[in-house]
Amino acid sequence: MKIKSSFSKIIILLLFNYSVVSAQTDYVGSAQIPGHPRILLLKGEEKNIKNTIATDKTWLAVHQAILAESDNMITMAPVERIKIGRRLLDKSREALRRLFFLSYAYRMTGEKKYAERAEKEMLAVSAFSDWNPSHFLDVAEMTMAVAIGYDWLFDYLSPASKAIIKGAILEKGINPSLDPKNNKNWLTVEHNWNQVCNTSMAYGAMAIYEDQPELAKQVINRSINSIPNAMKDYGPDGIYPEGYNYWGYGTSFNVMFISALDKLFGQDFGLSEKPGFLKTGSFLENMTGPTGKPFNYSDSGPKGGLEPAMFWFATKTKDPSLLWVEKDYLKKDPKSYIQNRLLPGVMLWNAGLDVSAIKPPASKFWVGHGKNPMVLMRTSWTDTMAIYVAMKGGSGSINHAHMDVGSFVMDAEGERWAMDFGSQEYESLESKGLQIFGRTQDAQRWTVFRYINQVHNTLTVNDKHQWVAGFAPIISSSNKNDFMRGYANAVIDMTEAYKNSLAKAERGISIIEDTYVAVLDKVEALDTVTTIRWTLLTPATVTITGKNTAELTQHGKKLILKVEKPGNIVMKTWPTDPPPHDYDAPNPGTTLTGFEVTIPAKSKVTIAVSLTPVTNKKKKKDYRDYLPY
Predict the structure, then answer these.
(1) Cystine design at 176: which of 48, 133, 313, 519 (Cβ 3.0–4.6 Å)?
(2) Strands 415-418 and 516-525
(3) pTM attached to this predicted model
(4) Phi, psi of 330 (to 5 degrees)
(5) Phi, psi at 394, each rounded to 5°
């Protein structure tokens, strides 16, 4: 009776939400779908994975790591409903990791110990009072977790367990997703919430398809109709505006959706062909420098990691060079990737690729346009001592963005010299009462130390914040361009980011003769005396060595920061610790260095800075050989 009552509630909610449902294109129609298991890996397809691990030691190692971790999970207590602040998300993610791993282990070995433990986990989370619909990502990931477990273990589960688990998918997952108060935050937005929630609700629908076919079709159709709202942000060149870590979130779930559609319906209804989507693997690959650290702009962390979705892109595009960075992660200790809750996806999407045959990408220069345009360049893919520089334009109004228009990171000699703080843990700020996701100029977000332009590798004018609504496009980029006299470069127009502060601001960046990085700013003042601060955030020890030079040292390596022009500057360092507010995260081992220059009203100035690794063997030519001004 309880389940029938729940179904009645679902029908009521469907009618209440009719305006959304009725506007959908019916993609699913009367399609015939396979029986269980039907999500991602059909019955009998385990043999393909077994053939792969039998012939390749790398894939065998990943497979064995998943089994070993699944054995560890057997001894763990089930996930409990314990929230951190307003989120249950860490528990939903752990449930997804456990159920994906354990279900994979059962399907690959047939050992009932894995299915038994997965069933215990599903029954435990199914007994939760709810999956926290007020923060719908929590519901989403928990629904995906239980959907995979229910589908992959369908032949093992008892009728009683099936009824409980199916009821939870409906009552705690799909049912809340039909309520406008829960879905208004993700059905129409253009960021990761859309991708994660739509994918996960579709997984729930796929799992219970035969019991509620009309409801399941409506939910799947809703996801196919809605997810392009987020996918349009990949256009035209594949950049994910929210940054490295959120690529790993939104894009991974997007791939999970497309892959599941392919298995269930034999097609993805054109989703993978959306502008820029199949290019985004190249974007992510180029985001990692030779130090192994990513360009962690916006709310991204300082470390990279294995991305299972990259194996889908490599297989889909038939370009194994996309896995050059992933290959290094695969070779590391499994402890470095075993916490990745989507890790079994690597085994589903590798298509039996010979890891030893993966070659580096052909190009060392990557540029992309869109909401957050950027350039990513390096001197080598194979030399860990290579120079790497990545610079971004964009806007502070993008989801998870910082005031970092014009900012860049730089690697050389195996060290990161120009860095980005990246994210601060959200609960550390929200617990102090801060509203940290506002995007207006006066939002509380811009009181957080790590988020403002003053601590990024860019310009600060008259100590003001950048203009959040301003957009900085790439106006010139090429492997050979007059801006840098024939060297790979890019130029962004930052003028809108300095509204009411500067009449004009352009920044160009290049690697000159594989020897040093040149950063050139062309600035024009308004009708007032203007002070410009040029900053570089670094983990190195900084010593001011002259009127226009500073020496950066770390781990026995050196880099010289030299202000080539103008001459009337004052070299400085600024502390990063302690930060100004008690809610700001500490920043030990970091320093801001750079200089200030004051220019007359309505005047123009060219700022030229070189960043030169001391151990580089090539002789650096005079910067004047490359200046366009």
Answers:
(1) 133
(2) unpaired
(3) 0.93
(4) -60, -30
(5) 85, -145
